[in-house]
Amino acid sequence: MAQEVRGVIAPGKNEPVRVETIVVPDPGPGEAVVKIQACGVCHTDLHYKQGGINDDFPFLLGHEAAGVVESVGAGVTDVAPGDFVILNWRAVCGQCRACLRGRPWYCFDTHNAKQKMTLKDGTELSPALGIGAFAEKTLVAAGQCTKVDPSVSPAVAGLLGCGVMAGIGAAINTGNVGRGDTVAVIGCGGVGDAAIAGSRLAGAAKIIAVDIDDRKLATAEKLGATHTVNSRNTDAVEAIRELTGGFGADVVIEAVGRPETYQQAFYARDLAGTVVLVGVPTPDMKLELPLIDVFGRGGSLKSSWYGDCLPSRDFPMLIDLHLQGRLDLGAFVSETIALDDIEAAFERMHHGDVLRSVVEF
Ligand code: APR
Ligand code: ZN
Ligand code: ZN
For 168-220, what is the HEC assignment? Predict the structure, then answer.
C-alpha cells in the first residue's frame, strides 16, 4: 500500500521550497523504499529550484542521503529490509557500452525507480538526481542503495552520496593522485575540501589549497592542505609554481567550475601534469587557450563525473576509513537542520557560510 510522508518540493522556477505530503508507492520489481535518516543540502538542489537543470517541476529535492531500507520489490537481492545504505545516483546498469567495456564508473544508463512518487492530488514528482531524499521515505532503484557499516552517523554517511564523493574521487580516481605527488586544489568548498582529504589519503606530499575566502582556507588546512593561497590578492599560478620549485603541481583539481579558474589549473600544473575539472560550469561558459600550450604542456586534461566513483567499491571503503579515524568525513557537516529549514540553508550555502547543512530526520 502506498504511504504518505513529509517531503520538500520545489514547486516552480525560483519559488520558495515547501513541505508537502508525498505519496510513496510500494516498491515494484527492482525497486526499494528507503527510510531516510539524513540528507545533505547540495548546490544541485538549489539549481533544480532555480530551473537550472530542467523544467520538470515540481521537484522532490534532496539527494545526498543515507537511511535504512524499509521494503524491496520483486527480484531485489543485493539489499534487504533493515540494511543501512547510502543512496547513489549512479546505479550501474551492466549493459551499456561503458559497462561492457569494463568501465562501469562511466555507466551511461543508470537506473532510477520506474514508478513515480506523487503529491496527494496525483501530480507526479521529479526526484532530484533520481533520488528525492528530503522526504521521510523515498522510492529508488535498488541499485541506488549501497550498503555500508551501520555504525557510522547517517549525517556523515549521506554526504558520500554526492559532493564529498565527487571531491575524493576527483583526487583518487580521476586524478590518480599517488604517494609523493604535489597537488593543488582550486576552490575549497565541500567538493574541493574533499579533494584535499582524498589527496592526503592517497599520500600526496604537498597539498596546496587555493580559494578567495580565508575562512575556506582555514577549513582546508584542517582537512589536509599543507599550504594555502588566497587568490584574491595573489596570482594563483605564480604562487603554486613558487611552492613547487618553480614547476607547478603534478595534479591540479579545479573545484569551482569557471573558465578563469580552469585556466589557472591549466597553467599551474607541471609539464605532463594532470588537470581534473570537478567543478560544474554553466552552459554559457567558454574556454579559450592557446592550442600550442595544450600541445606543448602535454599531460592530461580530465573531467570527473561524480568522482568517477563506483558506489559498491568506494562507499564501503571510505566509510571504513572514516570509522578507523583515517578520513575525517565529520568535518564536512557544518550543521544539522530540520526539514523545514531548507530554504534558510540555501541562503547560508549561497553566502559560503557552510560546507554542508544536513537535514536529520
Ligand atoms: N578562485 C578560487 N576559489 C573560488 C573562486 C575563484 N575565482 N570563486 C569561488 N571560489 C571558491 C569559493 O570561495 C568556495 O569556497 O570556490 C568554493 C566553491 O565552493 P562551494 O560553493 O561550497 O561549492 P562546492 O559544493 O564545493 O562545489 C564546487 O563542484 O559539484 C560542483 O556544482 C558544484 O560547481 C560546484 C563545484
Ligand atoms: Zn549533490
Ligand atoms: Zn551501464
Answer: HHHHHHHCCCCCCCEEEEECCCHHHHHHHHHHHHCCCCEEEEEECCHHHHHHH
Q: Which ligand is nearest to the CA of 234?
A: 1
β-strands 31-40, 64-72: how paired? antiparallel
How many A from CA of 255 to the centre of ligand 1? Answer: 6
Q: Hey, what's the torsion of the CAs at 77, 84, 144, 65, to 10 degrees?
A: 170
| Tens-binned pLDDT, residue by residue, of the chain (361 aa) | 899 999 999 999 999 999 999 999 999 999 999 999 999 999 999 999 999 999 999 999 999 999 999 999 999 999 999 999 999 999 999 999 999 999 999 999 998 999 999 999 999 999 999 999 999 999 999 999 999 999 999 999 999 999 999 999 999 999 999 999 999 999 999 999 999 999 999 999 999 999 999 999 999 999 999 999 999 989 999 999 999 999 999 999 999 999 999 999 999 999 999 999 999 999 899 999 999 999 999 999 999 999 999 999 999 999 999 999 999 999 999 999 999 999 999 999 999 889 999 999 9
Strand partners, 336: 358
195 touches ligand 1 (CB under 6 Å): no
Q: At a CB cut-off of 8 Å and minimum separation 6, what does 201 contact?
A: 168, 171, 172, 321, 326, 327
| Under 8 Å between Cβ of 160 and 189 | no
- Torsion angle in degrees (nearest 10) through CA of 110, 113, 114, 120: -140
- Residue 144 and residue 262: Cα distance in Å, rounded? 32
Give nearest CA residue, ligand 1 atom 10.
Answer: 187
Q: Are 159 and 333 in contact (CB under 8 A)?
A: yes
The alpha carbon of 162 and the centre of ligand 2 are apart by a number of angstroms equal to 5
C-alpha cell at 235: 596570482
Q: pLDDT value at position 129?
A: 96
Q: Which ligand is nearest to the CA of 213?
A: 1
- Structural domains in the chain plus CATH codes: 3-161+328-360 (3.90.180.10), 168-304 (3.40.50.720)
**Cβ-Cβ contacts under 8 Å for 157 (sequence gap 6 or more):** 38, 66, 84, 86, 148, 319, 329
